[in-house]
């Protein structure tokens, strides 16, 4: 499965949701996750993310392993999103900032 990682937080560009053939993305206040029970590993979303936040679960950046379980957990709690919307207002400022997990809103 593919997973959404740290750099999506406080950016949430949502370009990823438009290309997913199985509607696997779920939306929270400042982050999206992928439901591993839906993802078919088509790879289409990975290059769509302007923040390069999407990775295969076996290849997440070092130190971000917790995001694999976080996608599982939050996909159960958050609603599906299938239509692109505006990014969060300060997305450009937050893009690339490390350690955004501390700012995750649930
Ligand atoms: Fe959807 Fe494909 Fe991305 Fe999985 S890899 S979340 S199926 S677009
Ligand atoms: Fe997040 Fe990238 Fe999608 S920033 S909302 S994973 S396009």
TrEMBL record:
PROSITE patterns according to UniProt: 4FE4S_FER_1 (PS00198), 4FE4S_FER_2 (PS51379)
Superkingdom of source: Bacteria
Keywords linked to the UniProt accession: 3Fe-4S, 4Fe-4S, Electron transport, Iron, Iron-sulfur, Metal-binding, Repeat, Transport
A Pfam family that the UniProt record links to this protein: Fer4
Coiled-coil blocks: none
PANTHER family named among the record's database cross-references: FERREDOXIN, OXIDOREDUCTASE
Summary of the function given for this chain in its UniProt record: Ferredoxins are iron-sulfur proteins that transfer electrons in a wide variety of metabolic reactions.
Protein name from the UniProt record: Ferredoxin
């Amino acid at each position: 499965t593919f997973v959404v990682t740290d750099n999506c937080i406080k950016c949430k560009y949502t370009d990823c949701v438009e290309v997913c053939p199985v509607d696997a993305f779920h939306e929270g206040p400042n982050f999206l996750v992928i439901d591993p029970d839906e993802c078919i590993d088509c790879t289409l979303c990975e290059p769509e993310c302007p923040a390069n936040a999407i990775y295969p679960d076996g290849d997440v950046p070092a130190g971000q392993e917790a995001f694999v379980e976080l996608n599982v957990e939050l996909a159960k709690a958050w609603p599906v999103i299938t239509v692109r919307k505006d990014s969060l207002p300060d997305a450009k400022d937050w893009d690339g900032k490390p350690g955004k997990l501390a700012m995750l809103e649930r």
